[in-house]
Amino acid sequence: MSGHPVAIVVQNKETREFELDEEALRGVLLRPEVGDKPVCVVAVAGAFRTGKSFLLNFLVKYCVNEGTPNWLGDPSQPLEGFVWSTGMEGQTAGIYIWSEPFTIYAKYSGKEVAVILMDTQGTFDTQTSLRDSTYIFALTLLTSSVTVYNLMNNIREDDLTNLQTFSTYGASAQKEIKESRAFQNLLFLVRDWSFPQQHPCGHEGGQVVLKKVLGQLGEKAEKPMHESAHQRLRQGLRQSFEKLECYLMPHIGYGPAEDSNFDGRPNQLSPKFVEHIRLLVPRLLAPERLVLKRSAARRGQPATGEELVDFIKTYMAVFREGKLVEPTTLAEMMARVCSNGARNIALEVYNNAMNSILFPDGKSMEASVLMSQHLAYKRDAVAAYLKENQYADSSELFPVVHDVKEQLEKEIENHFLHYTEVNDHNKTKEQMKKLEEDVEAAVTIGTLGAALAGIYFFRRP
Q1: Which candidate in 11, 115, 133, 277 could, as Cys together with 102 as Cys, close a disulfide (CB 3.0–4.6 Å)?
Q2: What's the pLDDT tens digit per position in 426-439?
């Protein structure tokens, strides 16, 4: 199998702080085969020792075999890819992505999409602190287009409570920017589903269970005194995610669970589990179902690999100093991400306009005319910044919007100095060319005059 897991966020063994391996991140997301393609990021998150990496390897296999009907391959072959095991010790620390992005042709858009698969360490369990859990889960939700929330047996109230920070942030963000949900798709994947007689395994049964859990089927809360907080959480989740889904998975089979030599080969698994793996994985990765990662800066456009690199760098920088992942800090971070992205777009607007008047024919212009053009294009760039920045209308709440706007204006002035130098250089070249032409003309006239004088001299009687 080509490719391997690459650690992009690691935990320092001494300080216990999470650190970004930017070189590793760039090595995957800035590969030539990613380029400017839109990206789809599918991540799996959830508690320690619940089979996240095991599940992801089926996604790897689907992509490697390009989603062919027999994508599971030889049923006697061990399951390879992200490191996994059946023991008590966790295998994933930090965040990993697959080293080779997969290119899939998205039928609905007619474009190639770079698919990134992400594995995360256990969260919201006895092995991981609440701070670390929230840190990892937040980065997972914010960078992925689809997050698979891996749960065991059922969707419990604690599982929803773990999402409280994100639902609070998402609900407030929707009110502030009034355009889109804070997060994209969240799939509750219930492993070892405990009640198949009541609700059958699969997507249809999962949707019924999810509606019950979210209180959309008319059930009353068991404890009326908690109904307000209970309902606020559920309403916040609905406001925070573009799409909420649920899939109920059967047990892998008790043979594999008790076999110390179990290595994930399909013929060791319960036939019912294999049946649902065949149904679940295409729901996430089939060409007609790919969910593109939404750009944080360019409204209505998909994100690129380069944007994801900038986003993750910003996230890590914001929380590097030990800040807690709270609704307010998440909002501040997203305002910074959007502002930086809008700034890049605005700079491109300015530079493209200035290049169009200075570089095509290499001619200079009067300094006053250049200044006039500069001021006009600067206004256009600032207008583009405010138009593209989803937080521009909330600048009173987010000072970073104004700070980045000031930074943009300073950068434009610095770029103008460069364009002034280019214009001066063009003017000097024009003057030198004119001087050469004058000299050449003078020489030509002198030579012609001398020739005429000679003719006159020799013809004189």
Answers
A1: 115
A2: 888 877 777 777 67
